[in-house]
Write a structure and sequence with these properties.
- With 505 residues, the protein is α/β, with parallel strands linked by helices.
- The chain contains 17 helices and 22 strands.
- Strands 14-15-16-13-12-18-19 form a seven-stranded mixed beta sheet, sandwiched between helices. Strands 9-8-7-10-11-21 form a six-stranded mixed beta sheet, with helices on both faces.
- A hairpin with a 2-residue loop joins β1 and β2.
- It is globular and about 75 Å long.
- The structure holds 1,4-dihydronicotinamide adenine dinucleotide (NAI) and magnesium ion.
- 1,4-dihydronicotinamide adenine dinucleotide binds next to α9 and α10.
């Protein structure tokens, strides 16, 4: 069975643990307790592989936002968290990472069921990633430091000064995350903020709130004091927007669409919140004429089909030198049509559905627009007739730089391949985008790679690989791909304020 046979296996039943968890009463985590939303309103959650409703979660209203912000404020200003030593913060973050490891199998299953990705991928990427982000960031808690400096302040004869810069936690942080890597995105946001001593309100995406709620249980079990992490499930336009506008929130950290990133950046200006944004991409993959064809084919397939293409760094613009264009495209089409589509809990599945009906429709409409604008579908190009939200791995050729499939983020398993002859021409084409999140270069010529890297306007450039991240490697975008850098030492800038102290001695 493969993608072209159209047959989608049945979604196996989840384990009893996961079944019981998804059946739990809709609740929000506020001030260390699981509470109802006052309105009683709920949001339905679906299994993308079947289109069936699997859970209901609470829809947090303005009142719950106020309560969560008040709890986070109180926990930040005084009490056990405010008094905790950095070493104790480090230890509690490690405790949480150990609990993630303990429950790794259950978390991977839950993530697969809610997001559609395979349980296998969740168990080798998302869950260990979340664990490792907490571990890495735990170490930073004890390594935050300031500086002392000499000054030349005049006007006071004989005066001496002791001047230093302290780094302090920014305060109450609201963190709004998307649905493509729900647990990992929650970890990317929470881990550095908590290491820095902030308190958090996490709002998972409405499509995929389940692993964040399970993480909330682990946060309580790890012993984080009440109010340090609050979890509000709700819609972006209401719960998310209320957090962004709230005067009690000091900082917003957001990952999602560029469209919403712009709305958030504008809205946060009214209260002058700190804002960091990790937004969309349209990442180019540049295959030089000397590249190993087999490596480029495998790399291109992973770059665009990993996580069903729902990756901000997906290699969605594929530039191949004319000399090897036909070979690479032929190999990529072969790879695309042999990928086994299916439900995430089925062991034989290689690629799951898209996250939602809406996303499936969006991706299909991009494929249609590509066809209308003159692109040719050489692999995939359609949905699978099945209740789940499947789209076949798709390769488009005869693309040109004006097409929407080349300019806009599709966020699905669709790659636009283009041929080039001249290096200057491909550099110009690669940079001809409002986005600048990432890029990859495929070559065995070290000198060519080094010469190309500085010419690419992107926050990450991979060479002979794509989509690889590490907690020690700064991550973020040039241009419309965002503001700020997450991970590594750089992320501390997002969750701390500098305080200059000048003391006349
Ligand atoms: P989105 O940007 O609307 O949603 C991401 C998060 O933002 C969710 O938690 C959502 O509830 C929240 N949100 C939405 N509107 C908000 C508002 N006005 N104020 C505060 N929070 C708000 O993304 P969506 O609509 O799910 O996907 C649309 C497109 O966005 C995708 O096709 C893809 O191109 C892009 N996207 C990019 C992601 C990335 O990792 N860079 C992740 C998810 C989507
Ligand atoms: Mg949206």
């Amino acid at each position: 069975m493969n993608a072209s046979s159209n047959a989608i296996a049945a979604q196996p039943n989840p384990s009893n643990k996961v079944r019981d968890f998804v059946a739990r009463k809709p609740r929000l985590l506020i001030n260390g307790e699981w509470v109802d939303s006052r309105s009683g309103k709920t949001i339905a959650v679906f299994d993308p592989a079947t289109g069936r409703e699997i859970a209901q979660v609470a829809d947090a209203g303005k009142e719950e936002v106020d309560r969560a912000v008040a709890a986070a404020r109180a926990a930040f200003e005084s009490g056990p968290w405010a008094d905790m030593t950095p070493a104790a913060r480090e230890a509690i973050l490690w405790k949480l990472s150990d609990l993630i490891e303990r429950d790794a199998a259950e978390l991977a299953e839950l993530e697969s069921l809610n997001n559609g990705k395979t349980r296998f991928m969740a168990s080798i990427i998302d869950v260990p990633g979340a664990r490792d982000w907490f571990r890495y960031m735990a170490g930073w808690a004890t390594k935050i430091e300031g500086t002392t400096m000499q000054t030349s302040i005049g006007g006071i004869p004989g005066a001496k000064f002791h001047t230093y810069v302290a780094r302090e936690a920014v305060g109450v942080v609201a963190q709004i995350v998307p649905w493509n890597f729900p647990l990992a995105m929650a970890a990317w946001k929470l881990a550095p903020a908590l290491a820095a001593g902030c308190t958090c309100i996490l709002k998972p995406a409405e499509q995929t709130p389940l692993s964040a709620l399970r993480l909330g249980e682990l946060i309580v079990e790890a012993g984080f004091p009440p109010g340090v992490v609050n979890i509000l499930t709700g819609l972006g336009e209401t719960t998310g927007a209320a957090l962004v506008a709230h005067p009690g929130v000091d900082k917003i950290a957001f990952t999602g669409s560029t469209e919403v990133g712009k709305i958030i950046n504008k809205s946060a200006t009214d209260t002058m919140k700190r804002v960091s944004l990790e937004l969309g991409g349209k990442s180019p993959m540049i295959v030089l004429p000397d590249a190993d064809v087999g490596a480029a084919v495998g790399g291109a397939a992973m770059a665009i089909f990993f996580n069903s293409g729902q990756v901000c760094t997906a290699g969605s613009r594929l530039y191949i030198h004319s000399k090897i264009f036909d070979k690479v495209v032929e190999g990529l089409c072969g790879a695309a049509s042999s990928i086994r589509l299916g439900p995430g809990l089925e062991q034989a599945t290689e690629m799951g559905p898209l996250v939602s009906k809406e996303q499936q429709e969006r991706v299909l409409s991009y494929i249609e627009s590509g066809k209308k604008e003159g692109a040719t579908v050489v692999a995939g190009g359609e949905a699978v007739s099945h209740p789940g939200y499947f789209v076949k791995p798709t390769v488009l050729v005869n693309c040109n730089p004006r097409m929407r499939v080349v300019r806009e983020e599709i966020f699905g398993p669709v790659v636009a391949a283009q041929r080039y002859d001249d290096l200057d021409e491909v550099v110009k084409a690669a940079n001809d985008s409002p986005f600048g999140l990432s890029a990859s270069i495929w070559t065995n010529n070290l000198s060519a790679a080094h010469r190309l890297i500085p010419r690419i306007k992107a926050g990450t450039v991979w060479v002979n690989c794509h989509n690889l991240v590490d907690p020690n490697m700064p991550f973020g975008g040039f241009k419309s791909s965002g503001v700020g850098r997450e991970h590594g030492r750089a992320v501390l800038d997002l969750y701390t304020e500098l305080k200059s102290v000048c003391m006349l001695v």
